[in-house]
Amino acid sequence: MIRQKAILFKLNQIKFTDMQLLVSMKPSYKVCPSCQAKKCCSPHDTYDRDLISIVNGTRKDDRITIERVMCSSCKGTHALLPDILIPLRSYSLRFILYVLKAYLIRKITVVALCESFCIAVSTLYQWIHLFILHTNLLYSAEKQISKLTQTALCFIDDSDSIPEKFSSTYQFSFLQNQKRQNAEPRPG
Questions:
Q1: CB environment 139-155: b (16+ within 10 A), e (fewer)
Q2: Are 17 and 55 within 8 A, CB to CB?
Q3: 66: part of which helix (H) or strand (E)?
């Protein structure tokens, strides 16, 4: 998988929908993530996947096409995934952060909130757990958090390169569910 920088984060300030951001992206595949060969990847194939995003405070379901490239050096194939997409998940990063903010505000019950976004309560609590876990990976030791807070959400929302830094350091995406919970930074 090759992560594509799609946004300068600051999610609250972006006037485009996730779909508009995806359409405006120009794929870049200069370095193979497997063998590190340069200028060796070329278009290979595509596949469709679901995208659940947020538009004007409402859940929006779309079908999108993801481009795949093949490395002429190692013959590996890689999907070009924008950083607003979480690998192996349909929900966009913005959708999840929006739901987490709505959870913090709590104008309605958790059950009603989950029903309004068509998600399971267990999914919401999984996102909260992942957010805390992954935010603590980003924070220094003295700034560890133990619960979801508005300050932590603002830290993530206002940072201009969290998805890129996180995935290059830990080899998985921010809010991507991993079986291996004790993530270690990649050496180098």
A1: eeeeeeeeebeeebbeb
A2: yes
A3: strand 58-71
Among 146-150, 154-158, 177-181, name the most confident range.
Answer: 146-150
Give the pair of three-digit tokens for residue 100.
């987490």
Residue written as token pair 């603590």: 136
The DSSP line for 15-52 is -S-HHHHHHH------B-TTT--BS-EEEEEEEEEEEE
Angle between helices 110-117 and 121-138 (to 10 degrees): 90
Encoded tokens for 130? 């992942």
The more confident residue out of 182 and 150 is 150
pLDDT tens per residue, range 14-68: 567 777 777 766 666 677 877 888 888 888 888 999 999 998 889 999 998 888 8
CA separation for the pair 87, 175 (Å, rounded)? 9
pTM: 0.76
Do residues 76 and 40 touch, judged by C-beta distance below 8 A? no
DSSP states of 99-167: HHHHHHH-SS-HHHHHHHHT--HHHHHHHHHHHHHHHHHHS-GGG--SS--HHHHHHHHH-SSHHHHHH
